[in-house]
Amino acid sequence: MKKHNFSAGPCILPQSVFEKASQAVLNFNELNLSILEISHRSKPFVAVMERAQELALEHLGLQNKGYKALFLQGGASMEFLMVAYNLLETKAGYYNTGTWSDKAIKEAKLFGEVEILASSKEANFNYIPKNVTISSGLDYVHCTSNNTIFGTQMNEFPETDCPLICDMSSDIFSRVLDFSKFDLIYAGAQKNMGPAGTTLVVVKEEILGKVTRQIPSMLDYKVHISKDSMFNTPAVFPIYVSMLTMEWLKEQGGVAAIEKINNKKAEILYTEIDRNPLFNGFVANKEDRSKMNATFVLTNDALKETFDTMCAKAGINGLNGHRSVGGYRASMYNALSVESVQVLVDVMKELEKVA
Ligand SMILES: *Cc1c(COP(=O)(O)O)cnc(C)c1O
């Protein structure tokens, strides 16, 4: 039996995507060739790339608005430095809301001045700072929409008179937002879009080409745009699987339809965390709770072995919290079913009975 996979990333993808991807490894598009052995410049793969770019913009409602979708390599971590390389001339403003923001800040400091606009570091990132004042004269503002490790999620984004950049690695395509507020969005594929190996970058072209430094070709967004994400050999298979996942999302009714299911999953789990005396949520304010990654701890550590054994028996995978938080983290990305969340909640209820 397939496990209930709550892994934070790489994460669960739809079963139908695994099946189609497997078939394409054996015989892609009835070509009698594997997707793994065809040229990235071949017509069938160029069509995959174009479709993936089109679907990404469509899911974000950003077609014909001056944005380009790129599929790059190096993970979201590469974007930490590429963003600064391409956009930081003097000073940028950063929200520090988690480990990934912290890492983005560290990279940006190599290229210019960084102003921390808001931070929850002093509270081990257990909340989202509000009412943040945005200074003027910044080259851009950078934030992280969902803090994968700590389980917090931003619901309000700042108004800025400079480009707004967002790391959406762990909640891309999970909810409807006015994405045109953002000038550059990036997301490592392996959290909610596909397998590890490619990173989606959606960028408004007009913000590029303004810094005075020289940019190496592989790190220059303009170069990747001019070559349609084929400046060098792209991650053919991860892009193909990402395309399949975006097709699947479209068949489900798109981001608005999946958001309803994501809301339901989050409600089922958080209701149990709040009700069950054996569990506590990690996040300080309910309104900051992530609908993708729910973090929680046992109120009595002595029950850990029992709970872990019960989870394993129920076929639950990937529930361990990140080492910087401890406890548990249930990642409920798009492909995770409501039934899987119900299985977890049933185990939590069962623990109460046996404890
Ligand atoms: C996982 C994650 C990253 C790092 O992604 P890589 O692709 O491993 O570099 C960055 N930001 C967020 C929000 C993440 O969840």
TrEMBL record:
Return the InterPro entries for the record: Aminotrans_V_dom, Aminotrans_V_PyrdxlP_BS, Pser_aminoTfrase, PyrdxlP-dep_Trfase, PyrdxlP-dep_Trfase_major, PyrdxlP-dep_Trfase_small
Cross-referenced Gene3D superfamilies, in alphabetical order?
Answer: Aspartate Aminotransferase, domain 1, Type I PLP-dependent aspartate aminotransferase-like (Major domain)
Please state the Enzyme Commission number of this protein.
2.6.1.52
Q: Which UniProt keywords apply?
A: Amino-acid biosynthesis, Aminotransferase, Cytoplasm, Pyridoxal phosphate, Pyridoxine biosynthesis, Serine biosynthesis, Transferase
Instruction: Provide the residue positions that the database annotates as binding L-glutamate.
Output: R41
Pathways per UniProt: Amino-acid biosynthesis; L-serine biosynthesis; L-serine from 3-phospho-D-glycerate: step 2/3; Cofactor biosynthesis; pyridoxine 5'-phosphate biosynthesis; pyridoxine 5'-phosphate from D-erythrose 4-phosphate: step 3/5
- Which co-factors does it depend on? pyridoxal 5'-phosphate
Relay the cofactor remark from the entry. Binds 1 pyridoxal phosphate per subunit.
Residues modified as N6-(pyridoxal phosphate)lysine are K191
Catalytic reactions on record? O-phospho-L-serine + 2-oxoglutarate = 3-phosphooxypyruvate + L-glutamate; 4-(phosphooxy)-L-threonine + 2-oxoglutarate = (R)-3-hydroxy-2-oxo-4-phosphooxybutanoate + L-glutamate
| CC terms in the record's Gene Ontology section | cytoplasm
Limits of the Aminotransferase class V domain: 5-344
Q: Name one GO biological process term.
A: pyridoxine biosynthetic process
Chief location bin: cytoplasm
The EC category is transferase
The record's subcellular location field reads:
Cytoplasm
Q: Is Transferase one of the keywords UniProt gives this record?
A: yes
Binding annotation for pyridoxal 5'-phosphate:
A76, S77, W100, T148, D167, Q190, N232, T233
Query: What Pfam families is this protein classified in?
Result: Aminotran_5
Q: Name one GO molecular function term.
A: O-phospho-L-serine:2-oxoglutarate aminotransferase activity
* Self-association and partners: Homodimer.
What family name appears in the similarity comment?
Belongs to the class-V pyridoxal-phosphate-dependent aminotransferase family. SerC subfamily.
What's this chain's function?
Catalyzes the reversible conversion of 3-phosphohydroxypyruvate to phosphoserine and of 3-hydroxy-2-oxo-4-phosphonooxybutanoate to phosphohydroxythreonine.
**What name does the UniProt record give this protein?**
Phosphoserine aminotransferase
Species this protein is from: Patiriisocius marinus
The organism's taxonomy opens as: Bacteria, Pseudomonadati, Bacteroidota, Flavobacteriia, Flavobacteriales
